[in-house]
Amino acid sequence: MAENLFDYYAQILYDYHFLKQPLQTADAIFVLGSHDPSVADYAVQLYKEGWASTIIFSGGVIRPIGELRNEIPKSEAEAFFDIAVKSGVPVDAIILENKATNTGENFSCTRKLLNEKRLDYKSFILVQKPYMVRRTYATALVQFAEFSFVSVAKPDSYAEYIARCEQNNISKERVISNMTGDLQRLKIYPEKGFLVSMEIPEMVWEAYKKLIEMGFEGRMANTAP
């Protein structure tokens, strides 16, 4: 019963975070770093479907990217690059940005790299995990305000996504803690100027508080001044 209860609250957060936006063709598929290899898999799918002719992988954090996929930790961008190339994406269709250590830096470091390469991209498909779609979008509204973009993820249901994560040795507990952490960031980051404020319905905030009470608080942001 307890597991069913936290799944109930987690579903509410998942549905809120997974902002649904229709795909549109773009200059580049911009993939933000993650521990979840299915993010790279979805970017490859979008590339092969012809939504953009370039993939940008951004992420400098060095860690295992799904233990079943990478035995030796690499930067997120490098690990995603390996996944894409093994899936048939040409090397010259990929741009690597491997300095970013957080979501804001994914945007700022990628902007700097594109400027250095003199690439005048105007539109992007932002790809992340389902529960980071809304925060990615809210951050892009600040960091990429002059560009056209949509924020998307592989269209998994909550149950499908949890099953996919468990196949990659990413536990349900970790996913739920990440979701509470992302909601906290949506609440506190607008006042820091990191992202645009998003309305958080009362039902979503109550589900968040219940999950915190159950101990799912492993990824809280530092709120110290």
From TrEMBL:
Show where the DUF218 domain sits.
27-143
Q: Name the Pfam families on file.
A: DUF218
The record, for InterPro entries, names: Cell_Envelope_Assoc, DUF218, Rossmann-like_a/b/a_fold
The record ties this protein, via Gene3D superfamilies, to: HUPs (3.40.50.620)
- Spell out the protein name for this chain: DUF218 domain-containing protein
